[in-house]
Amino acid sequence: MRELFPWTGNAYTVGFTGPPGAGKSTLVDDLVQLARAEGDRLGVIAVDPNSPFTGGAILGDRIRMMRHTVDPGVFIRSMGSRGHLGGLAPAAAQARDVLDAMGMSYVFLETVGVGQSELEVAELADTTVVVLTPGLGDSVQTIKAGIMEIADIFAVNKADQPDTERTVADLKELLRLDSRPRSWTPPIVKTVATAEEGTTPLWAAVHEHRRHLEVSGELSHRRRERMARRIVEIVTHRVRHEIVGPSAETPRFQTILDEVVERRTDPLTAASKLQEGRSR
Amino acid sequence: MRELFPWTGNAYTVGFTGPPGAGKSTLVDDLVQLARAEGDRLGVIAVDPNSPFTGGAILGDRIRMMRHTVDPGVFIRSMGSRGHLGGLAPAAAQARDVLDAMGMSYVFLETVGVGQSELEVAELADTTVVVLTPGLGDSVQTIKAGIMEIADIFAVNKADQPDTERTVADLKELLRLDSRPRSWTPPIVKTVATAEEGTTPLWAAVHEHRRHLEVSGELSHRRRERMARRIVEIVTHRVRHEIVGPSAETPRFQTILDEVVERRTDPLTAASKLQEGRSR
């Protein structure tokens, strides 16, 4: 990282997030095609916190990207939850940096699922595309989990299904209800990824958002803010890991928690005990 | 804390949160009246992260609670953002514990505003009442900031204003769209706190939610989970404070951030530098 990092900062990162089954992989695949047609080299990172596997391109959904796996202009990497001691989001950030340093024009960052770690991964993107499908009932959990805040563009995929207009209307309503001041209103693009429909307008929307960020100066501001959060995140993640382990479920933590719940010690003493006991 | 803590665990904590101007203080005042009529002693903690002041009862909105300030069965405490080196949420948790140990039957925890620290404070409650007002446009930012997830009961206050039914319908729609499985559906109670209207049904809803938590065994489960988060929070807050100061804006952090942004160092090295440099 120390040697690679000086060569980073040039790739433009586009995040794709949304519930499982929304068709993100196919959509990303379509956009890879469009970007390649423009002559750009690019990297694709597919993050699935629910998968234990980390490795190459031949993994579950990735099979759909087979048409690009033999293209030397496209590098595809899947990342699961295992083997990233520093946390999945920092690991994804590093993978992104490697592709950036390799001279890729774009890095596509696809995250499966809608939990906190996916949001953290999505936070690495310059432009975030939230992929939803008709039938907002299934997706609204996504929206409420904070995805509304991070969406720069909405893609309503599988737009050949009934209920598409209802979902678009629901999204418009949610945007209307949002009273925060904004300089960019997220466009809603209807796509049918399997038929490559709507993907050209979607790719155009990404370009437009990028222009908006560059012209307004927001891009460098956002990147600096993100870097600050990333550094603080690395530090607190390391410390949290040192103290409670990868989750709060370590036996040592449970023992101390039991003591507090049973009122044999208090939370501050418990915290000090955990801090003192770590191996530094 | 060490000596007080064994006496805690008996008070029932009710959180009140929502945007400024929703009438939370008046509503809390009404419920204090109802709880006192049932013979219960109680504590009220009013947290305002935007206020620099911490202290007694005579503070801004607190004046509305004057009718209870001379009642020895009610203890009122305002907390602002200053003077809580461990963070506002942990400080509020300690104040709640003190009132709990004092033998109060209830602790009412009122939080002003809708930011992250308010959510953390609301997280201390057994039952959380989200107070909104007609004209959801003003309040929906609240809902999207994660308050939907924490609401056990909705109070639509100032329900004598126009648009009340629209707001209630909007809330019902948001609840309907929420596909997560739940054992408790948050009731929506219309109130006019200034006229003491709807406050008896609201207080009954609090009792009903409490019974639900107790009968289902969720109360002790929730409290244990909360305690785990509280301990981890104390530790990470201490560490974060040691490293980057109360905010990320310390000159030392900015200098290191500049180095990263200008690619003179990398995020991992920057994190280590921050960790090594702290005064332990």
Provide an overview of this structure.
The structure is a homodimer of 280-residue chains. The first copy, chain A, is of the alpha/beta class. Chain A has 10 helices and 7 strands. A 7-stranded parallel β-sheet of chain A has the order 3-2-4-1-5-6-7, with helices on both faces. In chain A, helix 1 crosses helix 7, helix 3 packs parallel to helix 4 (116-122) and helix 9 runs antiparallel to helix 10 (267-276). The longest helix of chain A has 27 residues, at 218-244. Chain A is globular. Chain A starts with 11 loop residues before the first strand and ends with a helix. Chains A and B meet through helix 5, helix 8, helix 9 and helix 10 of A and helix 5, helix 8, helix 9 and helix 10 of B.
Task: Detail the topology: elements first, then pairings.
Two copies of one chain form a homodimer.
Chain A: E1 12-18, H1 24-37, E2 42-47, H2 66-69, E3 74-79, H3 88-101, E4 106-112, H4 116-122, E5 127-132, H5 136-150, E6 153-156, H6 164-177, E7 188-190, H7 199-216, H8 218-244, H9 251-261, H10 267-276
Poorly predicted parts of chain A: 56-63
Radius of gyration of chain A: 20 Å
Helix-residue proportion of chain A: 40-55%
What shape does the CA trace of chain A take?
Answer: globular
Biggest sheet, spatial arrangement of strands of chain A: 3-2-4-1-5-6-7
Helix and strand succession of chain A? EHEHEHEHEHEHEHHHH
Oligomer: homodimer
Distance between the termini of chain A: 23 Å
Strand content of chain A: 5-15%
Number of strands of chain A: 7
Main interface by residue count: A-B, 55 and 56 residues
